[in-house]
Amino acid sequence: MPSLVSAVDRAIQILKAFEAKDEYSLTELYNLLGLNKSTTHDILNTLCQHRFLLRNKETRKYRLGPTLIRLGHLAHEQIDVRRIARPFMEDLMRQTAKSVLLGTYYNGRITIVDKVDPVGELHVSAVVGQQIPFSAGSFGRVFVAWKSEAEIDELISKQGLTAFTPSSIVDPALYKKELAKVREQGYAIDEREEYLLGVKAISAPLCSPQGITAAITIVGFTSRSQNEPSQATIAAIIRAVTEISKQLGA
């Protein structure tokens, strides 16, 4: 059995205790779990700093916080969207002979949660679990495009626009023009190798009643096809995301 990191293990024990009860005091937690009082206090403070837990100032009791709740919702959404999207991703792969990626967005980063690669074909490498910055080509733009002006400004201010290649958009005004184009047409294209040299992509959002839940991206090598995606590819990805979004309840 692999060794455990004791501090992380204790934090998980504390979080799992809330499966049985909504609120705990410090005394209740260290007695329940048999932990040192000082250690328990430090772990609780850390969890509160990251809003995994919240502390009621009047009762001094702890309860689950918004970060943990949000991550739980994300995990549920990812499982559901993967199940629904998978057959459509396989169809897109067969139609285009290119890799198809499914990504979700949180805190300025896209996480690849599923992928389908063409069998026997040279394809763009991507790993499930890999994280990509929001400014990475078309994938990020479909998540950012429908955010408010204030949210976009804050995102650019805090995380910046990275120059991954010489073609990357690093000017905020130009980036916002690209976002406006995405809102107008409903999908994003990276035909200029903005994120990876030799690679182009087209991305489109998946919607649920909560908003944009995920996005699908078709990626391929620039040398193997025309610079811009064909009308057939655009139509195929729009059909796919429309149907997936319907099944997600949009």
Rg measurement, Å: 22 Å
Low-confidence blocks of residues: none
Q: What is the class of the largest domain in the CATH system?
A: Alpha Beta
Helix content: 40-55%
Proportion of beta-strand residues:
15-25%
Largest beta sheet, briefly?
6 strands, antiparallel
Molecular shape: elongated
Strand order, largest beta sheet: 5-4-3-8-7-6
Supply the CATH architecture of the largest domain: 2-Layer Sandwich
Q: Please provide the count of β strands.
A: 8
Instruction: Quickly count the helices.
Output: 8
N-to-C SSE string, H for helix and E for strand: HHHEEHEEEHHHEEEH
- The CATH homologous superfamily of the largest domain is termed GAF domain
Question: What report would you give on this structure?
Answer:
The structure is a single chain. It is built from eight helices and eight strands, in the order αααββαβββαααβββα. It has 250 residues and is α+β, with helices and mostly antiparallel strands. The chain has two domains: 6-64, Winged helix-like DNA-binding domain superfamily/Winged helix DNA-binding domain (Arc Repressor Mutant, subunit A, Orthogonal Bundle), CATH 1.10.10.10; 73-247, Beta-Lactamase. The protein has a six-stranded antiparallel sheet, sandwiched between helices. A two-stranded antiparallel ribbon has the order 1-2. Helix 1 crosses helix 3, helix 2 (26-33) crosses helix 3 (37-49) and helix 4 crosses helix 8 (231-247). The protein is elongated. The mean pLDDT is 86.
